[in-house]
Amino acid sequence: MAKGRTVVLQHFLAFYLRRRKLFTRSACILILYFTFNSGSSSKRRRKHGVSNKNKRYLSADVCTFKNPFTRLVYKLKHSPTVLLFSRLAFAKRKNTSKILSYFGAQMALLVAKAIFTLKEASLDGALVSSMVSKEFRQFFKFLAFWLLLGIPSSITSSLIKKCQGMLAESIRESITESILDDYLPDSGNSTLYQMVNQSRVADTSTSSVLSSKSASTSPDRSRSHSLTDVTNPNNIITTTVEELSQSMAILPFQLFDPILDIMLAGNRLSEVSKYASEGSLLLGVVANISTLLLKVFTPNFAALSSTHNTLENMFHTYHSQIIDHREEIALSRGHRRELDMLDASYFESERFQRLEMRRMAVYNFAVGFIFKYGLGAFGLMLCSFPVFTTAYLANFQIERKLVAKLASDFFANRRLLMSASDSLGRLILSKKTINNSIGYSTSLWEFDSILKDINNASKNVLDDHNDDRLISGPNVSYGNEISFVHVPLVTPSGNVLAEDLNFSIKPGQNMLVIGPNGCGKSSLFRILGGLWEVLDPGKVTVPSSRRDLFYLPQRSYLTYGSLREQILYPDSMDDYRLKLVATKKSMGSVVKDDNYLIDLLQLVHLEYLLGQNEDEDSKEEDTDDDDIETYSIGSSTGDTEKLSGLDAVKKWPDLLSVGEQQRLALARLYYHQPKFAVLDECTSSISPDLEKECYRMAIERFGITVLSVCHRTSLWQFHSYILKFNRQDDVAAATTIFTKFDPDKRLKRHQELIEVEAALKKDDDLTTRLESLKKMQLRGGRRAKLMYIGDD
Ligand SMILES: Nc1ncnc2c1ncn2[C@@H]1O[C@H](COP(=O)(O)OP(=O)(O)OP(=O)(O)O)[C@@H](O)[C@H]1O
């Protein structure tokens, strides 16, 4: 009876042996398929409120594709990762070839690595076999081979790492280049201003033609815009691009290395072991059960990384805010309040990180145990199977030579199966990297879409492709003047500041703009600078070229760079050199060389900046260890702190007082010598005498026509026209009056008012005169003294 059962079993085994290759390969495919389809289920994603980000980009008609292949192609074509790579990373041929070559090199190295692993496994087996059969010469021969194999194998591993680094760097370079081209476009469009502004304005649809245009052209994009925090573009451009590049660079390794390992191991097993087919099939089933089991321990990676990023961003933003306002905080002793905010933000972030670590610890344990030990144990069983079956079939009468062969196979197979089970674990972990990459690329794609929408909308309003235009649009015309006719002044959030703005200024007619705080004085210049649109029925006439209008705000913008660069801004050093060559060629015109720049500094009494070549930074640098190779950041000239004069590179915004910064900005204005200049309280911190001198210089010496907002009466004398904003307390929109301005007359009346007010206390006869003056004030609005000015 027992003999009959043995015969049946032997026939059964023989049948499987004939089909072993087929079984092995189908088992491999099963393993890969089920492993890859594991992870967080869509049900759980929905429960956590995190949808598959990819799906946002797929319109409803994707469901109409019956053919799964067409559907897959459609999905791929619309996936943000593919879009991001096709339009940003591969935007330039040079970058494309770099990325593809590093990717190709990495793939080739991965294949080489897998082949070396196979060879090592065979050598392991051979070593054990020679040891068991006591063939010492063979043993040392194999040992030498094994050592030799270690050289190319180690080189390959190190080259893979290097390739990953280079791939990450080229992806980052390429995406950063493309995003920066949209972020600060050559056309001079105020994309960054509009993007941050739009996201801060709650109701963008009211007045922003830009947003409505972009919404109408791409509904999917406008819907997704709200998902990206564009108020923090620095984080997206630095951190997100870096993280995406890193994860995309390690993806080929994480994905293809285990797949190659599994495939090669399966193939090898089917060749070397007679009974590997059943084992491989069973291994496929066990791998499937394991991945199902792993789902229980898998956290929602997308939700985790999104919350993590939000909390980190918040902490980062608080820090930047404190650094930006360090002086105000220090003077107002606001430390405790700021510390509370930082503590709260850090505590929140840390609490979440602990939760994240707990979830990841459980997940890592599950991956480690299930795949390394669970599948590893199964692999050992599988390897021992040929030993037991051979022994069983030969009725446990095995020759010595066969024992050595079985031992060799056992070790080779065990090694391959252990590495295959480990590879399965890595394959599962690679899903995390894929999800992260999708998350990062979605954020980046949304961000770039917003930039592109803004730039495209601006292009639509352009009547020609002249990038040098000051502003463009259907309501804009060009001439030798600045004029506003029936222009409504409306904020991006739809607040009407002034319904009907009218004025006209020709060269030489300097205009004073006055009005209460928040009435829209600076907003007028936002229209003039192209930041806000000229809405219907308004018509604006401006000089055609950007160079004809210069804007100086109250807090002037200084860059980190040389003193010369502060004066030249926004010109670059190349622009400066070109201008120098041009003026030298054209005989007779003033050559704006370094001596000219020094003269300008003298005009604003800043010549002492030329002599400052020692500061604390340089002293700090002296203490640096000479042996350490240091890099000069922000300058190609090397030892920047030793430079002096116009070449001195310093942290000018931190080094100069507000008044000094304003004077430096005036030197900048003199250098550019525009036709018109907007001076928006740009001299408020300069002493009155020097302020007057600077104004006189701008108007008389450099022939600049100024449109100025200033509260000091000492500057009235430079203006011949006045634009006055009147706002009643109960009406949001201001009315405006534009008239000729006689500074002497107005000053006299202003002085008179002061004197009458003083005399009133003593003399009743002046009451009548005061009443008449008060009437005029009331007509002018609530800011009595200011409204008096310019009232005829
Ligand atoms: N980007 C913007 N989006 C929405 N509202 C804005 C924006 N910029 C300014 N405003 C609003 O427009 C109004 C006018 O601002 P503006 O800067 O023109 O005032 P101002 O007359 O120059 O005041 P001040 O004399 O205090 O400088 C303010 O209420 C301000 O909140």
From TrEMBL:
<feature type="domain" description="ABC transporter">
    <location>
        <begin position="482"/>
        <end position="759"/>
    </location>
</feature>
<feature type="transmembrane region" description="Helical">
    <location>
        <begin position="138"/>
        <end position="160"/>
    </location>
</feature>
<feature type="region of interest" description="Disordered">
    <location>
        <begin position="614"/>
        <end position="639"/>
    </location>
</feature>
<dbReference type="GO" id="GO:0005778">
    <property type="term" value="C:peroxisomal membrane"/>
</dbReference>
<dbReference type="GO" id="GO:0007031">
    <property type="term" value="P:peroxisome organization"/>
</dbReference>
<dbReference type="GO" id="GO:0042760">
    <property type="term" value="P:very long-chain fatty acid catabolic process"/>
</dbReference>
<comment type="similarity">
    <text>Belongs to the ABC transporter superfamily. ABCD family. Peroxisomal fatty acyl CoA transporter (TC 3.A.1.203) subfamily.</text>
</comment>
<keyword id="KW-0812">Transmembrane</keyword>
<dbReference type="GO" id="GO:0006635">
    <property type="term" value="P:fatty acid beta-oxidation"/>
</dbReference>
<keyword id="KW-1133">Transmembrane helix</keyword>
<dbReference type="Pfam" id="PF06472">
    <property type="entry name" value="ABC_membrane_2"/>
</dbReference>
<dbReference type="GO" id="GO:0140359">
    <property type="term" value="F:ABC-type transporter activity"/>
</dbReference>
<dbReference type="InterPro" id="IPR017871">
    <property type="entry name" value="ABC_transporter-like_CS"/>
</dbReference>
<keyword id="KW-0547">Nucleotide-binding</keyword>
<feature type="transmembrane region" description="Helical">
    <location>
        <begin position="361"/>
        <end position="388"/>
    </location>
</feature>
<dbReference type="InterPro" id="IPR050835">
    <property type="entry name" value="ABC_transporter_sub-D"/>
</dbReference>
<dbReference type="Pfam" id="PF00005">
    <property type="entry name" value="ABC_tran"/>
</dbReference>
<dbReference type="GO" id="GO:0015910">
    <property type="term" value="P:long-chain fatty acid import into peroxisome"/>
</dbReference>
<dbReference type="GO" id="GO:0016887">
    <property type="term" value="F:ATP hydrolysis activity"/>
</dbReference>
<dbReference type="GO" id="GO:0005324">
    <property type="term" value="F:long-chain fatty acid transmembrane transporter activity"/>
</dbReference>
<dbReference type="InterPro" id="IPR003593">
    <property type="entry name" value="AAA+_ATPase"/>
</dbReference>
<feature type="transmembrane region" description="Helical">
    <location>
        <begin position="99"/>
        <end position="118"/>
    </location>
</feature>
<dbReference type="InterPro" id="IPR011527">
    <property type="entry name" value="ABC1_TM_dom"/>
</dbReference>
<feature type="compositionally biased region" description="Acidic residues">
    <location>
        <begin position="614"/>
        <end position="629"/>
    </location>
</feature>
<dbReference type="InterPro" id="IPR027417">
    <property type="entry name" value="P-loop_NTPase"/>
</dbReference>
<protein>
    <recommendedName>
        <fullName>ABC transporter domain-containing protein</fullName>
    </recommendedName>
</protein>
<keyword id="KW-0813">Transport</keyword>
<dbReference type="GO" id="GO:0005524">
    <property type="term" value="F:ATP binding"/>
</dbReference>
<feature type="region of interest" description="Disordered">
    <location>
        <begin position="204"/>
        <end position="232"/>
    </location>
</feature>
<keyword id="KW-0472">Membrane</keyword>
<feature type="compositionally biased region" description="Low complexity">
    <location>
        <begin position="204"/>
        <end position="218"/>
    </location>
</feature>
<dbReference type="InterPro" id="IPR003439">
    <property type="entry name" value="ABC_transporter-like_ATP-bd"/>
</dbReference>
<keyword id="KW-0067">ATP-binding</keyword>
